[in-house]
Backbone:
């Protein structure tokens, strides 16, 4: 009986961590696994942001690896509200060292915030930027409209609220 209770507790805590980010905890695709994606900035390296055309979203901001970056509706300007399980699924776009390299993005829109753990995260229009672990390669936008809270970002710094995203976003939102 104790074993069933402890397994149930672990499952409940795991689901709570995933749902802290909104949505059903499974992302926009049908897979429920959380993959480890490459970091957007090498340790101690310079962060890079650019624009790229991604599916039906049009031209959006991407990291140095061409992966779509997102903003989270529960954040406020200058403050991230994505921690713990949320951050495991939606890693912060690390600020790196020095000024970020920007291609196709007005430098006046890009800033750095300090997270609660002291790490530095890139922001656009003051809104913290994230990657989605289910975007495993350039050109994907599987996190678009996740839980009605996560949005790709246009070069203007505004969130893109189009519900149909790039490859792999077949969730019917």
Residues:
């Amino acid at each position: 009986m104790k074993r069933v209770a402890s397994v149930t507790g672990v499952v409940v805590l795991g689901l709570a961590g995933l749902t802290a980010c909104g949505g059903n905890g499974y992302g926009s695709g049908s897979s429920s696994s959380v993959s480890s994606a490459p970091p957007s900035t090498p340790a101690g390296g310079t962060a890079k942001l650019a624009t790229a055309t991604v599916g039906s979203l049009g031209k959006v901001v991407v990291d140095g690896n061409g992966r779509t970056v997102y903003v989270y509706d529960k954040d406020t300007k200058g403050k991230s509200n994505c921690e713990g399980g949320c951050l495991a699924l939606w890693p912060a776009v690390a600020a790196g060292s020095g000024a970020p390299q920007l291609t196709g993005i007005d430098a006046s829109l890009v800033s750095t915030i300090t997270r609660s753990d002291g790490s530095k995260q890139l922001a656009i229009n003051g809104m913290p930027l994230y990657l989605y672990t289910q975007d495993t390669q350039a050109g994907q936008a599987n996190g678009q409209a996740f839980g009605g809270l996560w949005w790709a970002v246009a070069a203007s710094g505004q969130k893109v609220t189009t519900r149909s995203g790039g490859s792999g976003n077949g969730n019917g939102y």
About this structure: Confidence is low (pLDDT under 50) at residues 2-42, 165-173. The longest strand covers residues 48-54.
